[in-house]
Amino acid sequence: MKYITKTSLRIFTTAAVLTTLMAGVVWAAEPLAGLKMVREFEISGRKVLRYEHGEKGNNGKKYFFVLPCENVKNPPLRVILHHAGGSGQQALNEAYKSKHRHQYGSKDYAILYLDCRNDKPDWWWGWHGIKKNKDKYANKLYPTEKRVLDTVEWVIKNQKADRNRVYLSGRSMGGTGSLGIGYCRGDIFAAILVNVPAGADHVLFRLKNSNYPDPPPTINTSSQTDGWSKGQEDLLAHCKKNKLPMIFAWGPFGHASRPDMANRAVYDFPWLKIVKNEAYPVFTDSDSDETYPGHKNKTGKDQKGQINGYYRWKNITDTDKNFAIQLRLVKNDELGKPETIPQESTADVTLRRLQAFKVKTGESHTWKTVRNGKVLQEGEVRPDKNGLLTVRRVKIDAVPVQLQVAVKKQGYVKRNYSDRSASESRQATTLALQH
């Protein structure tokens, strides 16, 4: 699989058409036909605008709600996909009644509530239509997917939203729709939040049939006892194999909208602080991960657990020659309730969404972890066939450490072994001399 390592090319014409590449097929964001605002009202003190467009479907015209942000210039944008028992209207009402985090947004955000109930072909955010004709839509967006992306693009321009802070979320059907539509669109969405997503077929279909930019970091709370959770184990395996971002937690809470019952390090992850124009790390083979038991497995060892939930990061440097990112473990005082956080964790770290830093294909790169000027680990690494740099077995604890990466200088000689820490390299050299 090949990856697009940079944000896809955008070309605006006089019709304000956005063009991006997906599996060699051009998606052009087109105007929403017949778009007009039909109603303005308030909910919990916030102005709401209802828009309608297109031909009349089974239950009326397609519609969406926009909640403008009136106190922030170039506000971030929340995009909400509703669950199967609801609608765009229901999601709006529920958001301001129960304030579920996957539906509710504060006044500092512009918010878009989309609907897929009004027209039968839209159902399941397009997946039901895709699976009936997979050959046709393997390299082509289904109309529902395109409508969602077209609407997001229109709202970004209409609300003058910050393109680096567009966030997608949903529960159940809205969760699987968020994964299926958004996970391959790291050129649009900064991050994704899903709760008890109802299946993983949509996102896996897109991942296996698409060239895509680095995906948005995704927070996923699911349950192995949820009858709708089938496929999450396949998604986790795909993410691990391909070094894709997935912060995952589970517990025996079924299909309930209770993500707070999962590991709090995942539940309280600051996903709305992730921005599209900054690099992020992907953690794999972490020794602090638990093992997801799988669909309907009630006897597996870890009936509650997390994957990648304890890590936090902060970008430090991203230039054409040098990259540095701060890594640490979360602290309990950052969480709503305490968890058993390890004192130290070791993981492989893959760098994605690099901005200015240029990975040199086929060339060796030096890396080291540094704290207070002291080098703790160091080594060399080469990019893999997909152009990704993965630093092996990085040690991380609660005290921030900088992972620093640079292109190896010509004539630079290093005595330790590639992809090993300094101590491991010295031990290997000693053993070799002894033999």
Residue fraction in strands: 25-35%
Instruction: Kindly report the average pLDDT value.
Output: 88
The first-level CATH class name of the largest domain: Alpha Beta
Shape summary = globular
Would you identify the CATH H-level superfamily of the largest domain?
Alpha/Beta hydrolase fold, catalytic domain
For the largest beta sheet, what order do the strands appear in spatially? Answer: 4-5-6-8-7-9-10-12-13-15
Number of strands: 22
Explain how this protein is built.
This protein is of the alpha/beta class. Helices cover 19% and strands 31% of the residues. It folds into 2 domains: 279 residues, Rossmann fold; 126 residues, Immunoglobulin-like. The chain has a 10-stranded mixed β-sheet with strand order 4-5-6-8-7-9-10-12-13-15, sandwiched between helices. The protein has a 5-stranded antiparallel β-sheet with strand order 16-17-22-19-20.
